[in-house]
Amino acid sequence: MNAVSSKYSHKDAGWRLFLKTIIARAYPRLIGQQREVSWMVFDVVMPMLAVIAYVFVYRALKAPEEYIGFVVMGGAMTAFWMNILWSMSSQLYWEKEQGNLALYIMAPNSMMAVLLGMALGGMLATALRAIAVTVLGSFMFGVKYEVTSYIQLFSVFMLAMAALYGMGMIMASAFLLFGREAWHMANLAQEPIFLASGFYFPIKSLPFWVAAGASIIPLTLGMDAMRQLIFPSGFQFGFMTVRLEILILAVMSVLFVVTAKMLLAYVEKIAVREGRITESRR
Amino acid sequence: MSTTLAIETKNLGRIYKLRGSKKETRKELIALQDVSLTVERGELFGLLGPNGAGKTTLIKVLTTLLSPTSGWARVAGADVHTEPKLVRPRINMVSGGESSGYGLLTVRENLWMFSQFYGVPSKEANERIEALLEMVGMKDRMHTKSSDLSTGLRQKMNIVRGFLTDPEVLFLDEPTLGLDVGASRDVRKFIVEWLKADKTRTLLLTTHYMVEADELCDRVAIINKGRVLACDTPTALKQRLQKDVMFEIETSPLNGLTPQMMEEQPEVKKAALTEIEGGARLQLSLVEESALARVINLFTQKDVKVMNLNKRQPTLEDVFVDLVGRSMAEEESSERSQ
């Protein structure tokens, strides 16, 4: 073909462009995972060390055997939270630093599609890490699963992911707006959230208002519901009923994604008005 | 707006509010002032000016990345501020020294990704990527990770990114910045071929390389401190000075002699100074050739040695000196010191 003079047969617009953008922006995440295999150490081996430590502590304390499964599951779900906190949140900031953000805004695609592409890529890449931790942990400690409702389990997982990555999209815009201040806040929140969200124990053990407060992080309720659905006596340790948790997660998903869209529109408006947000410091 | 116009601006202005401490009143920086320009479809239009002149700000406004604080601008028939969604599918931009894309992706993958943001069909995008990379001499690097590319090759990849979506109006902001002579020549050649192939395409190029503007552009706007000082074809701009006699002189250090002292001499129209290693380079614009003797006489009085002396035709740099009163290099260093 004559690359210089020929015209394209057509260019997609509307929802087709929206989908193309999501896939194209998810692509670097997925392909990057294959080319940069250090994640196996940082995202599988490291969380496994924490899982092993908790398992030994629980066994020494003669805690109920379900706790071992809770810990393995918490270790797997940690990967998603870390992905939100340190990758998804800072993504728009790094896009700005690299000079990509201006190109994204200038292109005819929707910025929401770019953000959804980042979320989808991050979620799929992280799912592989979570599966690796689950398989490894279950094999090492002989964890037994007994799913009471596959439909509910699938719903909980998908809604928890939608709400969590919706939250990640909000954080991405917030990090871009507030820069280092947002960074410090995330740093400050990391350990308390690990504690309050019950990554390694059921949140029912916490005072009600602490557990209720921690439920703002979608993984808290997501993990609580999943533990009830996949361990035979899991319901005994549940903070709320699975149905109620599904309902709350559904509301959170809509709320977070809509808020993310509004915040992104605001960020784009500020970027064009003030000019500083797309300014790379390189 | 006439359909023959690719770009039109009227009294365009942009003021930045600078962030200071909370107690201070916010300072303002005028980046663009009263810019009125028209660029015809099919034209290669140059914006020429020193760093900090407002070229990049103007490009940002025209590419919908920045709103104007006064006036208006239309690109491809649509208002950049009120109708950005109509402008964006028709434009693209490449900046010199940009590091866009992802280092873990190959050249082909990066280019494919950006093509998808414009809704280009994947198969056609891949065919065009291959053909464009061949044209810029990078086909053998198609499967190289972009983090492994040299600066020059990376910039060529960026250039291909801009052309890949086949925009109606393409903005190139200092596209040859940091490139070696050979790579710059390749890029310039490619730009000309691209424009020749379709007369409806328009290209706006910013540069502070005079030769680049002179060689490539159909028309050039000279911009300084946010204002357009002149706008015409390079030939017409230089013809303004045709009646003057131009000399370029390299000397030893000037020992306190200033361009102003030279301009005080009869029939010396302009003297612009650029510091060079071990001395100075002077651009002299004289009404009469005989005025050179008076300048040489000044050198003798101050014990300044002439190392090199050339009589030459006026260049766009001379036009800039004529309009601003000093060379681009002087203007840039004065901006930096403020």
Task: Give a description of the structure.
By secondary structure, chain A is an all-alpha fold. Chain A has helices at 14-35, 39-60, 66-98, 100-106, 111-141, 150-178, 180-196, 208-214, 218-230, 242-274. The model of chain A has no long low-confidence stretch (mean pLDDT 89). Helices cover 76% and strands 0% of the residues of chain A. Chain A has one domain (14-274). Chain A is built from ten helices and no strands. In chain A, helix 2 runs antiparallel to helix 3, helix 3 (66-98) runs parallel beside helix 6 (150-178) and helix 6 runs antiparallel to helix 7 (180-196). Chain A starts with 13 loop residues before the first helix and ends in an 8-residue tail after the last helix. With 338 residues, chain B is of the alpha/beta class. Chain B folds into two domains: 5-232, P-loop containing nucleotide triphosphate hydrolases (Rossmann fold), CATH 3.40.50.300; 239-337, Alpha-Beta Plaits (2-Layer Sandwich), CATH 3.30.70. In chain B, 34% of the residues lie in helices and 30% in strands. Chain B contains twelve helices and 14 strands. Chain B has helices at 55-62, 84-87, 107-116, 122-135, 151-164, 181-197, 210-216, 234-239, 259-263, 291-301, 316-324, 328-337, and strands spanning 5-18, 27-40, 44-48, 70-75, 78-79, 91-95, 169-173, 202-207, 219-224, 227-232, 245-251, 268-276, 279-286, 306-312. Chain B has a six-stranded mixed beta sheet, with helices on both faces. In chain B, strand 4 (70-75) and strand 5 (78-79) form a beta hairpin. In chain B, helix 3 packs across helix 4, helix 3 (107-116) packs parallel to helix 5 (151-164) and helix 4 (122-135) packs across helix 5 (151-164). The two termini of chain B are 40 Å apart. At the A-B interface, helix 1, helix 4 and helix 10 of A face strand 6, helix 3, helix 4 and helix 6 of B.
